[in-house]
Amino acid sequence: EAPSVDQLCKSLLLENKKVTATNNSSTTTPHDNLWFNPRFVLVILQYSAELSTDLLTKSIRRLRPVQERLDSSSFDWRVADPADNDRITGYQFNSV
Question: Disulfide engineering: 91 pairs with which of 7, 17, 77, 95, CB 3.0-4.6 Å?
C-alpha cells in the first residue's frame, strides 16, 4: 500500500482527433508522419497530477525541425474511446 497518492501513477490513452489517413502515414521510420503526428499516445503521469495537453503538443512538435513542425492546430487530444483503449492496450475499462 502506498503511503500517499503522490506515489502512484496513472496512464491515459489519448487520441489526436485531428489525425486523418491523409495526414498520417502507416510506416514507422523516424522521418515518417506516424512518429511526428501520432494518432494515439499513452501518457503516464503522477496520480495527483493533471495532464497538460499543451505541453504534450509542444513535446511532439519539437520532434521535428522547426521548419517542418506541424501547426499546434493539428492536435486535438481526447481520451481514447473504450473500444480503442481495449484494442490497443489489451486492458478493459479502468485498467489503464
Answer: 95
